[in-house]
Specification:
With about 230 residues, the protein is α/β, with parallel strands linked by helices. The protein has helices spanning about 1-15, 20-45, 55-60, 80, 85-90, 90-105, 115-125, 140-145, and strands at about 50-55, 75, 75-80, 130-135, 150-155, 155-165, 170, 215. Helix 1 (about 1-15) runs antiparallel to helix 2 (about 20-45). The two termini are about 45 Å apart.
Length: about 230
């Protein structure tokens, strides 16, 4: 029924105008799509090891902004202007405001239908002795919240920090991550930066360190994280 409706929707305008060549082209494309889906289902049913790759779109339905889309800015800044080692070196307060905003959004977000469907797929297939791994560019932990067990976060994790002095990596779900960031991070372009002293930004708890922490995520210009996920 759905296929019939789709075919009619695609070809009806051309039928009314007598464009038979275009009708034939659309029908061939739809038949090929249906054939490809059938092939996919067959291959999927036989696969023992499955990788599901996700990006920002899967979290957009959860209310997590996709900052690289048109108009995707924080205040007047583009993500690629903030998420760099150079920007953090020049203005760690601004960068931490930005990531505080993103952490709070993620902490208050709920997994989308897509997150839940992927987790359910993994749970169901694991009972059949089949493995599923989620490879995601997202850093919001929503796949974990949905129940996915095997998640490879290739761009890092909002809720992990890395010390720029000793390299220690820790999980941190505090809200806010430090007292000086409470109430900060508004994305409103009219809001000015809060000039938070570096000593009051997130600091390392390792004995004798007290180094400045950064989000343990991949930035533009980074060469990759120093530890496996």
């Amino acid at each position: 029924m759905m296929i019939t409706q789709l075919i009619f929707k695609r070809v009806a305008p051309h039928l009314r105008c007598g464009r038979w060549a275009l009708v034939q082209t659309h029908l061939k494309q739809l038949m090929r799509t249906n054939s490809d889906l059938s092939e996919f289902r067959e291959l999927f049913s036989m696969a023992k090891h499955i990788a599901i790759i996700t990006g920002a779109g899967v979290s957009a339905e959860s209310g997590v902004p996709t900052f690289r889309q048109a108009g995707g800015q924080w205040r007047t800044w583009k993500t690629q202007d903030l998420a760099t080692p150079e920007c953090f070196s020049r203005n760690p307060s601004r960068v931490w405001e930005f990531y505080h905003y993103r952490r709070e959004l993620a902490l208050n977000a709920c997994p989308s239908a897509a997150h839940r469907a992927i987790a359910e797929c993994e749970a169901r297939l694991s009972k059949q002795g089949r493995s599923v791994v989620v490879i995601t560019q997202n850093i919001d932990e929503l796949h974990h919240q949905a129940g996915s067990k095997h998640v490879l976060e290739v761009h890092g994790n909002l809720f992990k920090t890395r010390c720029v002095s000793c390299g220690d990596v820790e999980s941190n779900h505090k809200s806010p991550i430090c007292p000086s960031l409470e109430g900060k991070g508004s994305p409103d372009p009219d809001v000015k930066d809060a000039p938070i002293p570096v000593k009051n930004l997130p600091r390392c708890d390792e004995k004798g360190c007290d180094g400045l922490l950064r989000p343990d995520v991949i930035w533009f210009g980074d060469f990759g994280l120093s530890h496996p996920y």
